Amino acid sequence: MTMEDFRQEFLADHPDFDNHEQVVFRRLPEFGVDVIIAIHNTVLGPALGGARLWKYPTKAAALTDVLRLSSGMTCKNALAGLEFGGGKAVVIADPQRDKSPALLRAFARTVNDLEGRYISGEDVGLTPPDMDILAEVTPYVRGGTKGPAGDPSPFTALGVFEGMKEARRFKFDDERIAGLTVSIQGLGNVGWRVAEMLHEAGAKLVVSDIRGDRVKEAETAFGATAVDPEKSHRVEADIYAPCALGAIINDETVDEIAAPIVAGSANNQLAASYHGQLLAERDILFAPDYVLNAGGVICLARQDETGPEIESRVRSIARTLRKIFETAARENLPTSMVAGQMARSRLKHRAG
Ligand code: NAD
């Protein structure tokens, strides 16, 4: 048995293992940093997904995250109509303290060793300039400041904004944003831009972030009201938009969500799949995260196209959402389950 087979056997018992094709563990001893790259499925093409540089509380938490995020990427890329499979990387390090060009280059060498089976984009803790550093070492990188498309976050935000309008249209037959209250949790690359678009469209914003400076800026820029991050989901808003980290819809929060629509950019918002069912039972319309937030990966996958071409592809996220909402209503199923079924059906079709 090879070391790789041995690892796979151990992983098979992990609750979030979903027949991942390959999971690579690499220690970068000169930095005391561990890297995990999970390639979930390459039926549609090489695995494309962001790398997250984050200070996880435990290595087990990092493994759970990369397993869940990489299988989410398979569904995301399939439903966005891309010729890419699903994968994800985590670099277990503190973005403020540990991130350095040398660490990024060492991570890039690990990506390079996979010879193109995994292609990295940016995720939480990494920025477009960081991707430029990765690209000095490996061609298996998308994004960065120099490519034609550049930073994917504005495209992600655009998809989220269009998806919010679609959710309003479906549930209330009214896509107007003016006068609505939206509770945004997380004012980072995506959340901030979503806030900008909503503000321009006339929405009232309730915002939260663990970074006080971001919240203060939003109060000034958008006349937003600040709320404690722990209470963001309880705000009596028209839309709750989780734009920070995942598992925000869990046993504690699911009954407390006060908005009739949940639509945000954060990956893996449901802590477990049954939380999608619980939202549906409460008649809360959930826009599945990996459908809504596909704008960024569409931009990375289509980086040779022009901005307006990519934009029009991103706007088509609303059509996919509509199909999901309609099927879910017709078949009395949670939207999260319908999205999963649609993604698997594309994979099955391709696998023949
Ligand atoms: P980011 O790191 O720029 O922003 C995250 C923000 O959330 C930060 O301001 C951080 O301080 C804040 N935050 C962290 N924990 C919080 C908490 N408990 N409560 C409130 N705020 C908290 O990341 P981003 O690029 O804006 O991505 C946000 C989410 O969207 C992530 O889940 C990411 O995986 C997902 N996403 C991003 C993209 C993209 O194009 N950037 C694409 C798809 C999905």
TrEMBL record:
Protein origin, superkingdom: Bacteria
GO biological process, one term: amino acid metabolic process
Annotated InterPro entries: Aminoacid_DH-like_N_sf, Glu/Leu/Phe/Val/Trp_DH, Glu/Leu/Phe/Val/Trp_DH_C, Glu/Leu/Phe/Val/Trp_DH_dimer, Glu/Leu/Phe/Val_DH_AS, Glu/Phe/Leu/Val/Trp_DH_bac/arc, NAD(P)-bd_dom_sf
Binding-site list for NAD(+): G186, L187, G188, N189, V190, G191
Keywords, sorted A to Z: NAD, Nucleotide-binding, Oxidoreductase
GO molecular function: nucleotide binding; oxidoreductase activity, acting on the CH-NH2 group of donors, NAD or NADP as acceptor
Domain Glutamate/phenylalanine/leucine/valine/L-tryptophan dehydrogenase C-terminal: 150-352
The keyword Cell inner membrane appears for this protein: no
Catalytic site positions: K88 (proton donor/acceptor)
Family statement drawn from the similarity comment of this UniProt entry: Belongs to the Glu/Leu/Phe/Val dehydrogenases family.
UniProt-recorded name of the protein: Amino acid dehydrogenase
Native species: Flavimaribacter sediminis
